[in-house]
Amino acid sequence: MNIVGIERIYYGAANVALATRFHKDYGLELLEEGAHGADFRLLNQTTVHIRRAEDGGLPAVTLDWPEMNDSTAREVVWGVDTAETLAQIGAEIGRDREVRADNEGVLHTVDDNGYHIGFMVTRRTRQSTPFPDTNSVLNFGRRNRVAEGTIRKTVSPYRMGHVVYWSPGDIPSLAKFYTERLGFKITDDMTKGGLFMRCAGSWDHHSLLLNGGKHRGFQHVAYEFRDFDDVMFLGTQVEKGGWKTNVGPLRHNVSSTFSWYIWNPAGGLAEAYSDMDCVDDNWTARKFRPGEDPSFYGSAWKARPEQGDTPPAMWKNDVTAPGFPEK
Ligand SMILES: [Fe+2]
Question: Which among 227, 271, 36, 37 is positioned nearest to 128, based on CA atoms?
C-alpha cells in the first residue's frame, strides 16, 4: 500500500482570522478566504484548510486536554499513489471500522488513537529543489559567486513532511494500525518516548510520530524547506509577523533535521525543517533509552536554549493570551 505522504490537513480554529494570517506569514499560497475559513496551497500542490472550530462539517475534536482551547487539527488526509491503492486501503480498514467516502472520493475514518484521518489519490507534484553550491574546508563548490543565503527573500514551504500526535497509552499497539494495516515502517523507537514511522512511499525518516504523553492531541505538522538558509529565513519572517517561537533553531539528533518550531494559532506547532535523514528498506531502526542514550530525541545543538522544554500545561494554543508562551 503506497501511501506517499500528507495530502491535506484540516484545522478547526477558535480564531479563523489569526489562523489565516499565520499561514499567510508562513508563506503558504492563499487560494480562498472567507467567513468560513481559508484554503492554502503548498509548492507541491498539497493543501491546508482553516475552518471555524464550530464548523459542523469538520470531524470531531480529538483532544483530551482541559488546558487547551478548541484550536487543533481535525483531520490529516494521506495521499496514496493510485486508485487501486485507495481501494485496497478502503477494503482493509473497512474490516473493523467505519469508512466514509465523500463526493470527491476521499475516504474518511479514525485511527486507533481516535484521530480522524483520510485517504485520497495524491495530486502532488514531485519536483526537487536545486541545492545551492557550498564551500567547505578545501572543498570549493561555489567559486567566484556569493552564497545564495546572502540574498534576502521571502520563503514558502515545499510540502508537509510529517505530523506528530500526542499518544498516551501503549504506543507499539497504537502503531500497529499504521504498520500492519497501512504499510508504514518503523524507523526509530524512543521506547516510552514514541515511535517514528515513515509511509511506504516515502524515504523521509518519518512521516508520522506517535509521541508519548499524558494527553491526546495534535502536536505538530512539519513543513519542508530547501536548506538551512530557508529555514532561517522562514523563522525570522514568521517572528517578524509577531508569532512566537516554541523552540529553535536547532539540529535534532534523531532524524537529523534542522528545525524551527512556531506556535500555530490553528493548532499545535508548525515546524520548519530541512535536511532530514533519507532512509529506505536498508535502514535499521534504532531503540533509544530515554535518559540513558545521549542520542535520545532532542537536539545536538539549540540556538535559544531558554525557549525549550515548554511544559505540557503551556500547550494551550492561545497565542493571544498575555505572556504566552512564557512559563
Ligand atoms: Fe517534527
Answer: 227
Rounded to the nearest 10 degrees, how much is the dihedral formed by the CA atoms of 93, 116, 127, 84?
20
Domain that holds residue 9: 3-125+157-314
Say if 148 falls within a structural domain. no
Name the 3-class secondary structure at 221: strand
Kindly state whether residue 214 falls inside one of the protein's structural domains: yes
Contact between 106 and 251 under an 8 Å Cβ cutoff? The reply is no
User: 211 alpha carbon to ligand 1 midpoint, in Å?
Assistant: 10
First to last CA, the chain: 44
Distance CA 188, CA 286 (A): 5
Give the tens place of pLDDT for each residue, 81-124: 999 999 999 999 999 999 999 999 999 999 999 999 999 999 99
* Residue 274 CA to ligand 1 centre (angstroms): 11
- Residue 326: which pLDDT band, with cuts at 50, 70 and 90? very low
Q: Is residue 151 part of a domain?
A: no
- The domain that holds 196 is classified in CATH as 3.10.180.10
Within-domain flag for 143 = no
272 CA → ligand 1 middle, Å: 8
For the whole model, what pTM was predicted? 0.94
How many domains does the chain divide into? 1
C-alpha 271 to ligand 1 mean position (Å): 6
Got the DSSP string for 64-85? --TTS-S-EEEEEEEEES-HHH
